[in-house]
Amino acid sequence: MTQHRHQQSLGHLTGLASRLFNRLLTQRFKQASIDMTAEQWGVILVLKNHESKNNEPMTQSQISELLYLEKSSVSRSIDGLEKRGWIERQRSPSDSRSKFVSLTQQSLAVVERCSEIAATVLADAQQGIEEAELERTKQHLAQVVRQLRQLNH
């Protein structure tokens, strides 16, 4: 594949968009005096969504699986969030190797502010794209994600 075709490939473009989005999101958090990376924000979102549906904590392994990230990477993100008091870890009573992770009360205000910042970054990134085009793009990407998940199992 030539360099030009590679730079126009779906994999390259989605990866680049993700990295650029994460970089900008981390910068905006920093500008708002929030000491959080985009990767840590991903962990918080997974916890927030899980807890709102299940009302129970998750294990670090579950978070890694949902984010499709290495356990060591998720563990580093969790370490940083725990140091700031935004999440807490507890050993599983049934398996001492497993740790449950949950959001703290202290994280709620930060989650609200970060949600607003993330929504603004996303709106800025999508500016000028018609809603119908955006929906089609999301449908196509969701299909690619489903297919890649099947291929990875």
From TrEMBL:
SUPFAM superfamilies: Winged helix' DNA-binding domain. The keyword Transcription applies. PROSITE patterns: HTH_MARR_2. Keywords: DNA-binding, Transcription, Transcription regulation. One of its GO terms (molecular function) is DNA-binding transcription factor activity. Coiled coil: none annotated. Residues 7-146 form the HTH marR-type domain. The keyword DNA-binding applies. Pfam families: MarR_2. This is MarR family transcriptional regulator. It comes from Vibrio furnissii. The lineage of its organism: Bacteria, Pseudomonadati, Pseudomonadota, Gammaproteobacteria, Vibrionales.
